[in-house]
Amino acid sequence: MLPVVAAALVDGEGRVLLQRRPPGKQMADLWEFPGGKIEPGESPEAALARELAEELAITVDPATAIPLTFASAALGQRHLLLLLYLIRDWQGEPRPLEASALAWVLPQDMHALAMPPADVPLVAMLERLL
Protein backbone atom coordinates (compact mmCIF):
# COMPACT_ATOMS: atom_id res chain seq x y z
CA MET A 1 0.00 0.00 0.00
CA LEU A 2 1.34 3.41 -0.96
CA PRO A 3 -0.55 6.23 0.80
CA VAL A 4 -0.16 9.62 -0.87
CA VAL A 5 -1.77 13.02 -0.41
CA ALA A 6 -2.78 15.56 -3.03
CA ALA A 7 -4.17 19.08 -2.96
CA ALA A 8 -6.98 20.72 -4.85
CA LEU A 9 -5.76 24.30 -4.42
CA VAL A 10 -8.75 26.43 -5.40
CA ASP A 11 -8.49 30.11 -6.31
CA GLY A 12 -11.20 32.78 -6.06
CA GLU A 13 -12.47 31.94 -9.56
CA GLY A 14 -13.05 28.24 -8.79
CA ARG A 15 -10.00 27.10 -10.71
CA VAL A 16 -7.77 24.31 -9.40
CA LEU A 17 -3.98 24.26 -9.65
CA LEU A 18 -2.51 21.36 -11.60
CA GLN A 19 1.15 20.62 -12.21
CA ARG A 20 2.73 18.83 -15.16
CA ARG A 21 5.06 15.94 -14.33
CA PRO A 22 8.58 16.66 -15.63
CA PRO A 23 10.31 14.72 -18.42
CA GLY A 24 12.25 11.69 -17.23
CA LYS A 25 9.85 10.86 -14.39
CA GLN A 26 7.26 8.11 -14.36
CA MET A 27 4.08 9.38 -16.11
CA ALA A 28 6.03 12.33 -17.55
CA ASP A 29 3.99 15.21 -19.03
CA LEU A 30 0.74 14.17 -17.33
CA TRP A 31 -1.17 16.82 -15.38
CA GLU A 32 -1.69 16.02 -11.70
CA PHE A 33 -2.77 17.46 -8.37
CA PRO A 34 0.31 18.51 -6.38
CA GLY A 35 1.27 16.37 -3.41
CA GLY A 36 3.25 13.26 -2.59
CA LYS A 37 4.08 10.40 -0.27
CA ILE A 38 3.28 10.33 3.43
CA GLU A 39 6.48 9.70 5.40
CA PRO A 40 6.49 7.23 8.34
CA GLY A 41 5.08 8.88 11.47
CA GLU A 42 3.67 11.82 9.49
CA SER A 43 -0.01 12.74 9.44
CA PRO A 44 -1.58 13.13 5.99
CA GLU A 45 -2.17 16.85 6.62
CA ALA A 46 1.45 17.43 7.71
CA ALA A 47 2.66 15.49 4.66
CA LEU A 48 0.52 17.66 2.40
CA ALA A 49 1.88 20.89 3.90
CA ARG A 50 5.46 19.59 3.53
CA GLU A 51 4.92 18.44 -0.07
CA LEU A 52 3.33 21.75 -1.11
CA ALA A 53 6.28 23.64 0.37
CA GLU A 54 8.74 21.37 -1.49
CA GLU A 55 6.88 21.33 -4.82
CA LEU A 56 5.30 24.79 -4.99
CA ALA A 57 7.14 26.97 -2.43
CA ILE A 58 3.88 27.79 -0.62
CA THR A 59 2.96 27.53 3.05
CA VAL A 60 -0.23 25.74 4.10
CA ASP A 61 -1.51 25.35 7.65
CA PRO A 62 -2.27 21.62 7.97
CA ALA A 63 -5.31 22.46 10.13
CA THR A 64 -6.95 24.19 7.13
CA ALA A 65 -6.71 21.15 4.81
CA ILE A 66 -10.24 19.86 4.24
CA PRO A 67 -10.51 16.12 3.43
CA LEU A 68 -12.44 15.86 0.18
CA THR A 69 -12.28 12.40 -1.38
CA PHE A 70 -9.89 9.58 -2.24
CA ALA A 71 -8.94 7.30 -5.11
CA SER A 72 -7.57 3.77 -5.11
CA ALA A 73 -5.54 2.35 -7.99
CA ALA A 74 -3.05 -0.40 -8.79
CA LEU A 75 0.45 0.95 -9.34
CA GLY A 76 2.73 -1.84 -10.53
CA GLN A 77 3.41 -4.19 -7.62
CA ARG A 78 1.92 -1.71 -5.14
CA HIS A 79 -1.48 -0.21 -4.55
CA LEU A 80 -1.95 3.56 -4.43
CA LEU A 81 -4.32 5.20 -1.98
CA LEU A 82 -4.63 8.87 -2.98
CA LEU A 83 -6.18 11.24 -0.42
CA LEU A 84 -7.39 14.52 -1.92
CA TYR A 85 -7.68 17.62 0.28
CA LEU A 86 -9.32 20.94 -0.54
CA ILE A 87 -7.08 23.96 0.10
CA ARG A 88 -8.44 27.49 -0.23
CA ASP A 89 -5.86 29.39 1.86
CA TRP A 90 -2.07 29.41 1.48
CA GLN A 91 0.81 31.84 1.69
CA GLY A 92 3.07 32.56 -1.24
CA GLU A 93 2.71 32.34 -5.00
CA PRO A 94 2.86 28.75 -6.33
CA ARG A 95 5.98 28.08 -8.40
CA PRO A 96 6.82 24.85 -10.27
CA LEU A 97 9.86 23.71 -8.27
CA GLU A 98 9.48 20.02 -9.23
CA ALA A 99 7.12 20.27 -12.22
CA SER A 100 7.61 21.40 -15.79
CA ALA A 101 4.55 23.70 -15.65
CA LEU A 102 1.60 24.86 -13.56
CA ALA A 103 -1.93 25.65 -14.76
CA TRP A 104 -5.10 26.96 -13.10
CA VAL A 105 -7.93 24.87 -14.58
CA LEU A 106 -11.69 24.74 -14.06
CA PRO A 107 -12.73 21.20 -13.06
CA GLN A 108 -14.90 20.73 -16.18
CA ASP A 109 -11.87 21.54 -18.36
CA MET A 110 -9.70 18.86 -16.73
CA HIS A 111 -11.32 16.13 -18.88
CA ALA A 112 -9.34 17.43 -21.86
CA LEU A 113 -6.00 16.97 -20.05
CA ALA A 114 -3.95 13.79 -19.82
CA MET A 115 -3.83 12.84 -16.13
CA PRO A 116 -2.55 9.86 -14.11
CA PRO A 117 -5.22 7.16 -13.71
CA ALA A 118 -5.60 7.77 -9.96
CA ASP A 119 -6.28 11.50 -10.49
CA VAL A 120 -9.01 11.07 -13.13
CA PRO A 121 -11.86 9.95 -10.81
CA LEU A 122 -11.19 12.91 -8.51
CA VAL A 123 -12.25 15.36 -11.23
CA ALA A 124 -15.94 14.40 -11.01
CA MET A 125 -15.98 15.18 -7.28
CA LEU A 126 -14.42 18.58 -7.91
CA GLU A 127 -17.01 19.31 -10.62
CA ARG A 128 -19.84 18.62 -8.17
CA LEU A 129 -18.23 20.60 -5.35
CA LEU A 130 -17.06 23.65 -7.24
UniProtKB/TrEMBL annotation:
Top-rank EC class of the record's enzyme: hydrolase
One Pfam family per UniProt: NUDIX
The record's section on CDD domains has: NUDIX_MutT_NudA_like (cd03425)
What reaction gets catalysed by this protein? 8-oxo-GTP + H2O = 8-oxo-GMP + diphosphate + H(+); 8-oxo-dGTP + H2O = 8-oxo-dGMP + diphosphate + H(+)
Swiss-Prot/TrEMBL keywords: DNA damage, DNA repair, DNA replication, Hydrolase, Magnesium, Metal-binding, Mutator protein
Give the EC number(s) under which this enzyme is classified.
3.6.1.55
* Domain called Nudix hydrolase: residue spans: 1-127
What PANTHER family does the record tag this protein with? 8-OXO-DGTP DIPHOSPHATASE (PTHR47707), NUDIX HYDROLASE FAMILY PROTEIN (PTHR47707:SF1)
Name the family the entry cites.
Belongs to the Nudix hydrolase family.
Tell me what this protein is called.
Answer: 8-oxo-dGTP diphosphatase
